[in-house]
Amino acid sequence: MLSIKKYAAIDIGSNAVRLLISNIIEQKGKPVQFKKNSLVRVPIRLGADVFIKNRISKDNTQRMLDTMLAFKLLMKSHKVVKYKACATSAMRESENGKRIVDLVLEQAGISIDIIGGEEEAAIIAATDLNKYIDNNKTYLYVDVGGGSTEFTVIHQGKPVASRSFKIGTVRLLNDMVKKESWQELEEWIKFNAMGYDKISVIGSGGNINKIFKISGKAMGKPLTYFYLTSYYNMLQTYSYEERITELDLNQDRADVIIPAMRIYLSSMKWSGAKNIYVPKIGLADGIIKSIYYDTVSSNTQ
């Protein structure tokens, strides 16, 4: 017996807002399959408001409402049976975040959970990495966002340490990350990578996905530290406008890609990793899995 249901995840980040719709395929005697059906990304960049003025502007509040109404209609058209919406760093720190959550519920009928940094790291770490990783190896999972970056050390297929740091691309663009934050991150990575002979980085987030696509590498093959450093240096020789016109980057990607690479490269350097794997998964994928497993556990109780 084959069962296919559609679940949706809404990830309200500091740089962009995403709607991921996935097919949940269940077949007796076989493991459940999660297949991406549709992904919509809207670059609202809430963090640019919040990290400078501590609140989301009137203009971006309206854009949020319009986007959530659009997502509601898309979920209806797709016949989505369950969804979960999670807001991260920008909404966490915004003094009017709670009011916007209430407005969205009232006007779009979408309920938003504002999640903490550690919960965000846990959801990301719970994504099914088994098909991407070798259980005999050790990895540092780095999920770069606009307001924060989540780090998880995975040893023999299990998370052994996890932490969220307020170092994100939008914060870095606005020069809002103190030297002490970088030092704290360096110490955390070195301390947690210390006991392992060899470590590789797993990178997630829109920027590393874009770099991987540009590299032309086959899925499952890693990018090297050397390749990433060369690309990082090359990017800096182009102006913001040239990155859009000559390198064909979207305008909301052309500026944040450089601070994102700085985070990935620092993570590789401090952990001693020579390679970075890019499985194209992130918070939205983790949300889909959490909806499914929560449903399964509540049905078996």
From TrEMBL:
Pfam family, one: Ppx-GppA
Entry superkingdom: Bacteria
Domain annotation Ppx/GppA phosphatase N-terminal: ranges: 44-290
Protein name per Swiss-Prot or TrEMBL: Exopolyphosphatase
Species the sequence originates in: Thalassobellus suaedae
